[in-house]
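User: Hello, beginner here. Can you help me understand these amino acid letters and fold codes? It all follows right here:
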Amino acid sequence: MKSFKWLPLWLLLATMTAHAQKISGSYYSLTQFYNDDSLMHFKAPESGLRSMQYLDLHLLSADWEAGFNAEYYLPEALLGYNPELKGYFLGWYVQYQKDNWKLRAGNIYDQFGSGMVFRSWNDKQLGIDNALRGIDVQYKWGSGPAVKLIAGQPRTGMTYDDSFIGGISVKNEFELGLDASLNVEASAVTRYYEPENDKVPAHVNLYGIQTQFSGGPWDFYFEYDYKTPDALYANGVLNDRVLFDGDAYTFNAGYARKGFGVNLTLRRAENIQMYSRRSLEFNPYNTGVVNYVPALVKQHDYPLATLYVYATRPGISWADMHVGEIGGQADMVFKIKRKTFLGGRYGTVVSVNASQWHALKAEFIPALGIYKRNFWEGGALYYRDINVEIKRKLNKKLKTGLFVMHQNYNQLLLEGHGEMINALTVVSDWYYRLPHYSSLRFEAEHLWTKQDEKNWAEAGLEFNYNGTWGFFVNDMYNYGSSKIHYYNAGVVYTHGGNRLQLSYGRQKGGLVCVGGVCRYVPPSKGLQLSLSLSLL
């Protein structure tokens, strides 16, 4: 009977293909050949070669759209990804859109508001695919409110969970005149999962209200989210003696005009994350996550600036007896006018960013399985980051950048070992434009700290030729402790929407973050091949 499992899907896709007006798609593969490395104490897995393959096809015809995605892991996913990713997986969807209606069945990727109540998305770099297999119904009343209804089973690994997710979102925009508007969205999501016993609820709900005011150069945003009481796992054991609710408050204010912008974001979050089932809470692969709670810190690109990365901590940790987070970040960007002493001939762009995050101040009573916390008061410091970046064009061919950052990183609370790390990072970045659409880029970095692995130095060189070929080499050297060189070298070929990259080197373990969501990548060494194709 297994051979008939996908028969309706194949018949539907065959019909759509015959009548399709447009066909599009993409292919992506990532392959790693692992090698042992005695200096890093890295032992390559028994299957030294691991590969991940992804194929997406979309068929469009008038008001209809259909597609499918295929994944194949040989023999399983790369290190750092969910070890349940083995073999193959197939997903599909069919969509109809006309006038004010949009109907979709199959795999659903969507979100309510900012995603704090519900978000299903696919990110291959993070290894996240929490698609909802079900239905998505949307309707908009002219210039009035828009409504979304979703229902289905969330994907977890290579299958769909036994839980059920259902939700509704209503959004409306009000024009206030004088170039001002007010957007209001209210949303609710419920999760049903067969309870472990009669002490825990079968249904857990998330509610949210978001408001955004925009007028001229000003923008204000406020969101409140609430999660109904639920039992939690503590050190792998279900605590069904006490049920805990959760909430989050988010505020954002921004001002922008030509050559200047400033933004402030504040958030208090406590036990707000939801998973498709309780046993998945805070798993390192983000498997089964229902809502989107990103870390509100600047996402840095320079290698040494990513050694100590803050990943959001909105939950309750019984292991280290800390709960939630409270804090915020501020950004300011301004341009110094050209043809001035500070601005130079072409002007200078200065970016200033600061963020600080604490645990909520709380007292844990393990014997009773409860805690008492001060609602608005911060406790132990998780993370602090103050950084300045200056970019300047020196002439028509040469650009330079200077980046300086100071960090306080509570390694004990964030990683479970170590101490408070105080680090200073400085980066010098140079870019030179060559003839024939070519360029040369060089960066030099240094990180000073007396804690953890102490001082680091890094240098990188990139050469891009004719907008097609790229060559790079870089070395991140921990001369303060381990004396290990984390080198990497490779070549890149790009043509249109297609990209091929081959590289070899060492990878230091740590967090990889995209859009404020992070996953841990273990240390490794080997040859890596990636291929990205834009089909049709």
The first helix runs from residue 7 to 19. The first strand starts at residue 22 and ends at 34.
